[in-house]
Automatic annotation (TrEMBL), chain A:
Organism: Virgibacillus salarius
A UniProt-annotated Pfam family: ABC_tran
Gene3D superfamilies referenced in this protein's UniProt entry, alphabetically: P-loop containing nucleotide triphosphate hydrolases (3.40.50.300)
Main localization of the protein described in the UniProt heading: membrane
InterPro entries, A to Z: AAA+_ATPase (IPR003593), ABC_transporter-like_ATP-bd (IPR003439), ABC_transporter-like_CS (IPR017871), ABC_transpr_LolD-like (IPR015854), MacB-like_ATP-bd (IPR017911), P-loop_NTPase (IPR027417)
Annotated family: Belongs to the ABC transporter superfamily. HrtA family.
Subunit structure: The complex is composed of two ATP-binding proteins (HrtA), two transmembrane proteins (HrtB) and a solute-binding protein.
Membrane topology: Peripheral membrane protein
GO cellular component: membrane protein complex; plasma membrane
Matching SUPFAM superfamilies: P-loop containing nucleoside triphosphate hydrolases (SSF52540)
Task of the protein: Part of the ABC transporter complex hrt involved in hemin import. Responsible for energy coupling to the transport system.
Descriptive protein name: Putative hemin import ATP-binding protein HrtA
């Protein structure tokens, strides 16, 4: 199992009120498996993705990443796990505005203290070979999201997490991006989790998990 | 530095603008330092350069050379006690002089001491006085038209300028070194090495004596105040600049942290930018100051050497670091969860 959420609860306290954004959620994702998470607004989708991505620590329960329980690790160690084992695709691509496309990928190598080996193969694979020296503001929304997917693959992660990757795209481009993401996850045998509101992209997922009020109601 | 350099290049304009402010501030700091240095020399180089370690003054002079009056006989006794190899009397009088019987009045500071005194300055031109009627004048008197061999009338007496010396100014006037024959009182006894006196006398260092020169400490204090303000301004300008920039980049920092950048990497980048900006701006400021200094008229009290520039340069570096501290703190506080829409606190 690449990712296991084991009875994960996330509680927010607001004054005297305690509120479970996630309530005893358990989920397993295998390599090569692509899961879509759906549910109404405020149901806890982003919270779950953040915990799976080691951006947020659960109030109780365990997160196992490639067999390792990461719940108790120091924040420094957790940052390292994100760098080495997790790939993110964010809602608004979230590219670094002052980096050229090729450097959007190279920065991952730099952070991992590896030799910069130019992610140009990856970018060629994504049809971006003519855009290597462009800045993000010179790209279309779809191109930006493709760069973001290439960046997520750059560290050869165990798992790829995407929070509404199609939110800033029209439906055709959104479908293309999710198709690409699903294809890469299959080809490279990664585990993938995508939070989405977009019904039309659900067909690319192997499993659809519905969450409501912090609980998984359908799997 | 991968990120830091690329960002500097990408956002050139804003860094050039802040750099400009830094360059101007640095130039101003250097120029005022040069003025402070120059005025200090103009006011007191003769004391700073005095070939002595300590000065003996009367107690009731309260550290002011010109308020200390020691009868010649008593002064001579102290000199003898100290050993006249290592001690000399010193009388300082602010006087008017006229040159070759002309009407023009010249302000001079008369330094009277024993003819073979250790206090006699190094001669840069002419020959050492051989009799009581010959004097050594500071070279800045040349600007008033005084030449070797000219007759100077000081008070009632007439003298001949037999030599020039340099770097001997007191209270913004050129010093003239004169034989102390016939004086009935002096202001101080200058001593090399240790001084042992008691009773109605005080021993002070040359540095302490500087503070007793009229207007010396006020002049220096007001200039130093300006310099300190400029340091504070430089620190604030940098602090505000990097604070605002860091606020703007909050989301980017969140994303980078989510991607696995740790605090120390981001801090290194920020500090790298600060160091680069500070070093370039300070160097440019120094270059500009040297250029401006060359344009100043030669009689302007402006002294700037590499060594005197080093101190303000180092302080500006330190001040820049202090300015960046706030942003460093900000960066460490940014939570990577901010990269996920809607999940941020
Ligand atoms: N830092 C926080 N403090 C308190 N409550 C929070 C915090 N973050 C999220 N919540 C609450 O937790 C619940 C789940 O939030 P989450 O962002 O996971 O929802 P979501 O399913 O992603 O919604 P959406 O579809 O609108 O993005 C919401 O009710 C939200 O208000
Ligand atoms: Mg959400």
């Amino acid at each position: 199992m690449t990712l296991i959420l084991d009875h994960v609860t996330k509680t927010y306290t607001d004054g005297p009120n305690r509120f479970n954004a996630l309530d005893e959620v358990s989920l397993e994702v295998k390599s090569g498996e692509f899961i879509a998470i759906v549910g109404p607004s405020g149901s806890g989708k982003s919270t779950m993705l953040s915990i799976a991505g080691a951006l947020l620590s659960p109030t109780s329960g365990n997160v196992l990443l490639a067999g390792e329980n990461i719940t108790g690790l120091s924040s420094k160690e957790i940052t390292k796990r994100r760098l080495e084992k997790i790939g993110f695709v964010f809602q608004a691509a979230h590219l670094v505005p002052y980096l050229k496309v090729k450097d959007q990928l190279n920065i991952i190598q730099v952070l991992a203290k590896k030799r910069v080996k130019h992610g140009s193969d990856l970018l060629t694979h994504f049809g971006l070979q003519h855009r290597l020296n462009n800045y993000p503001n010179e790209l279309s929304g779809g191109q930006r999201q493709r760069v973001a997917i290439a960046r997520a693959l750059m560290n050869d992660p165990q798992i790829i997490l995407a929070d509404e990757p199609t939110a800033s795209l029209d439906s055709k481009r959104g479908q293309d991006v999710v198709k690409l993401l699903a294809g890469e996850i299959k080809d490279r045998n990664k585990a993938g989790i995508m939070v989405t509101h977009d019904e039309r992209v659900l067909s690319y997922a192997d499993r659809i998990v519905t969450i409501r009020d912090g609980k998984i109601v359908k799997d | 530095m991968f990120l830091a350099i690329r960002e500097l290049l990408f956002a050139k304009t804003r860094y050039i603008l802040i750099g400009l402010i830094m360059v101007l501030t640095a130039s101003l700091i250097f120029i005022i330092s040069g003025l402070a240095q120059g005025l200090s020399a103009d006011n007191a180089s003769s004391i700073q350069e005095l070939q002595a370690d300590l000065l003996i003054l009367t107690k009731d002079a309260e550290g002011e050379l010109t308020k200390s009056f020691i009868p010649m006989g008593e002064a001579q006794e102290i000199v003898d006690n100290q050993g006249d190899e290592h001690a000399s009397t010193l009388a300082i009088r602010m006087m008017n002089a006229t040159r070759n019987n002309s009407q023009q009045q010249l302000d001079i500071a008369m330094f009277a001491t024993e003819p073979d005194s250790m206090l006699m300055p190094k001669i840069t031109e002419g020959v050492s006085p051989t009799n009581q009627k010959q004097v050594v004048a500071d070279t800045t008197l040349k600007q008033e038209g005084v030449k070797l061999g000219d007759k100077l009338t000081i008070g009632e007496a007439s003298y001949t300028v037999s030599a020039f010396t340099s770097g001997q100014r007191y209270s913004h006037t050129p010093v003239v070194f004169i034989h102390n024959q016939g004086l009935d009182q002096v202001n101080a006894i200058a001593v090399q090495g240790d001084a042992h006196v008691e009773g109605s006398f005080d021993v002070m260092t040359k540095e302490d004596a500087l503070q007793g020169i009229p207007s010396y400490s006020q002049e220096q204090a007001s200039l130093n105040m300006m310099i300190i303000f400029l340091y504070v301004i430089a620190a604030f300008v940098l602090a505000v600049f990097f604070y605002v920039i860091t606020l703007q980049k909050r989301e980017q920092f969140g994303v980078l942290k989510a991607l696995g950048a740790n605090n120390s990497y981001l801090i290194q980048g920020l500090m790298g930018q600060v160091v680069l900006l500070a070093v370039v701006c300070i160097a440019l400021g120094a270059a500009i100051t040297v250029g401006i200094g060359a344009l100043f008229p030669s009689d302007m009290p402006f002294h700037l050497e590499l060594v005197t520039m080093l101190k303000p340069a180092i302080i500006m570096m330190i001040v820049s670091f202090i300015g960046a501290l706030l942003s460093l703190y900000q960066v460490t506080r940014i939570d990577p969860i901010e990269a996920i829409e809607g999940a941020a606190a």
